[in-house]
Amino acid sequence: MTKKVFENDPYIKEYTAEVISTKIINGSTWVKLDQTIFYPEGGGQPSDLGFIDGKPVLDVQIIDSEIVHKIDGSIDKNRVKLAIDFERRFDHMQQHTGQHLLSAVWQQLYGIETLSFHLGKDVCTIDLATSELDTEKIRSVELKLAQYIFENRRIESYLLPYEEVDQEYLSKLKETPQVVRIVEIEGVNTSACCGTHVTMLGELGLLKIIGWEKYKQNVRLSFISGGRAFAYFQEIFIAINEVSKKLNIAPSLVTERFPMFYERHQDLKKNYQNLYEKEIHYEAADLINQKKNNLIEHSWEDRPLQEMKDLAKIIIEAGDKVVIFQNKSQKTWIFAASSSQLFNVSKCIQTLKEHFGGKGGGNSVFGQWIGTIDESHWLEYKNNLLNT
Ligand SMILES: [Zn+2]
Predict the structure, then answer these.
(1) How far is the CA of 93 from the centre of ligand 1 (A)?
(2) What burial class does residue 388 get, using C-beta atoms within 10 Å of its C-beta: 0-12 exposed, 13-18 middle, 19+ buried?
């Protein structure tokens, strides 16, 4: 059985070990050592990464009750140097310890049990045995978390024979080991756990709940601790600062004032939409009146395509109309017709694609084509198209 060095001291970054065996499975080398500082995936915590004898460690698992290290390359030595990616490990220690503390506080304040834990790449989650949460509860839990972290309580871990372990810590164990590893946050919580933890709560720095949602019959709560919480705060601070600068108010006033700015923005948008509708209807009427026949043809050097489409739609709704609009700088054409008997748009676009390439599509009464036609050809083709 490989000695788990990380259980006694999770802060060891480098170590030396004897190779017990190596095995090739599906082209990958898996190494068994006499002792290891690599934590294998388990208990919601991902495995450590790093190097064994300079070869990258890609995965660490427990297979048939043995810790095995998947490496990139091969090893032909008996004695090897181990080095873990300690930045990753310490992050996992912070998140994992954070979970112990968070679960303990939910239990302590509201009697809510934690059903599962997931340590994600960016965010961690726990599923709480409750159907709903509110901001008041979140706030009081966060205050309690901060209090324990500021008190810098100690976290101890030790092994106890199975028979001596309190029944309540055993309920979540899947098997019956001879000894059980107990993790105890001084005066807060005791649980059975194999993961890696920090030794003082102060090392978490900060534990922040960042969201919650209903998940099946329970609530899934997202949180981050330590370095992740710090980076999150920096990011949010920059965002709030930007907003406060744009709104010309202090960052602390954003929550209070933002709804007013948002409402004003919505009103302006609505007013703009009304004006736009009026304006575009006037313009459509103007274009119709300017032409003696039913072909409404117009080109712009540049104009938003959406406006051109809106205009075309209004014109063809008037009935008995064919629209050909051109946006010169975007080389885009809008074709529309009140009916396909009058002018078949998809056929027109098909013909243009055949003769001039480009791309486009649409249905029999409305479509768009992007491409180039020279002016003299265009006149000839237009007449042909209108006749077809
Ligand atoms: Zn743990």
Answers:
(1) 8
(2) exposed
